[in-house]
């Protein structure tokens, strides 16, 4: 079945010295049985990626290197941006696309998100497409409508076989970095809705696509979230900065 994927989004934290220390402490806390049960990715700032790539390769750490975003063009006059080509050269495996902070702070549209999803796939990396509603949208009963729109627009012109191997992260905006998380049942309901929508759009991809939940995940709530039928992993922000807490989340199956 679907192997869980637990991803740490470091956001704008950890310079490259801190990043090296953090990944080494994380690797020390994890064992081969953890990697057999769970895929792990770490999404570091761009300035850390080359250092992390080296440590991962030299120390043979089975953690996947991840990026937090990417431009869609291969090269050009896009000051401050980084291309999928550049990330692929660093052996980046997973790229977060459409994180709510990118959508809300930096104004990324569904159309931008779709271009990025396709560009990441074209360089043989896996996009983690983030979707999620704001608190106002939830209160007005529009959660599924919003998430379905983000999915439909984000996946435009992506083939079923590509969708099957990608990752979708359900991250309610009101739960990110707030300490408020969706109940396992609420998260499951939306993740199930996402799988149904994928089945609607692509008959063959819905059994294989991995769906993560993200929003104030910690060691204490990870086991109950991971028990839900349609939650195949977790996207973890704040708690992934601390290798002890992040390893507790990755070992969710032992905490129950
Ligand atoms: C995130 O950054 O994707 C996230 C879910 O953050 P946090 O775990 O801190 O809520």
Record keyword descriptors for this entry.
eight-stranded parallel barrel, 8 strands, 256 residues, alpha/beta, single chain, binds phosphoenolpyruvate
Structure description:
The chain is α/β, with parallel strands linked by helices and 256 residues long. The protein contains 13 helices and eight strands. An eight-stranded parallel barrel has the order 1-2-3-4-5-6-7-8, surrounded by five helices. Helix 4 (84-89) links the parallel strand 3 and strand 4 (94-97). The chain is globular, with a radius of gyration of 17 Å. The two termini are 21 Å apart. The model has no long low-confidence stretch (mean pLDDT 97). The structure holds phosphoenolpyruvate. Phosphoenolpyruvate binds next to strand 8.
What ligands does this structure carry?
phosphoenolpyruvate
Low-confidence stretches: none
Major sheet summary line: 8 strands, parallel, barrel
Order of adjacent strands in the largest pleated sheet: 1-2-3-4-5-6-7-8
Span of the ends, CA to CA: 21 Å
């Amino acid at each position: 079945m679907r192997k869980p994927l637990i991803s740490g989004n470091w956001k704008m934290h950890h310079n490259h010295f801190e990043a090296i220390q953090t990944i080494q402490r994380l690797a020390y806390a994890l064992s081969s049985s953890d990697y057999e049960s769970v895929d792990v990715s770490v999404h570091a700032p761009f300035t850390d990626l080359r250092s992390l790539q080296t440590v991962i390769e030299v120390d043979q750490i089975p953690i996947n290197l991840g990026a937090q975003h990417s431009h869609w063009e291969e090269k050009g006059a896009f000051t401050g941006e980084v291309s999928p080509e550049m990330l692929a050269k660093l052996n980046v495996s997973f790229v977060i696309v459409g994180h709510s902070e990118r959508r809300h702070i930096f104004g990324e549209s569904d159309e931008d998100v779709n271009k990025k999803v396709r560009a990441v796939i074209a360089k043989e990396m896996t996009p983690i497409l983030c979707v999620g509603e704001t608190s106002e949208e939830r209160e007005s009963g529009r959660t599924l409508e919003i998430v379905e729109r983000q999915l439909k627009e984000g996946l435009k012109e992506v083939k079923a076989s590509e969708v099957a191997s990608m990752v979708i992260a359900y991250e309610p905006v009101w739960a990110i970095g707030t300490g408020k998380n969706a109940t396992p049942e609420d998260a499951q309901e939306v993740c199930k809705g996402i799988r149904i929508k994928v089945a609607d759009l692509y008959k063959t991809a819905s059994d294989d696509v991995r769906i993560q939940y993200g929003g104030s995940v910690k060691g204490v709530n990870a086991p109950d979230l991971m028990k839900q039928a349609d939650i195949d992993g977790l996207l973890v922000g704040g708690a992934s900065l601390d290798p002890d807490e992040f390893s507790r989340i990755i070992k969710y199956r032992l905490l129950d």
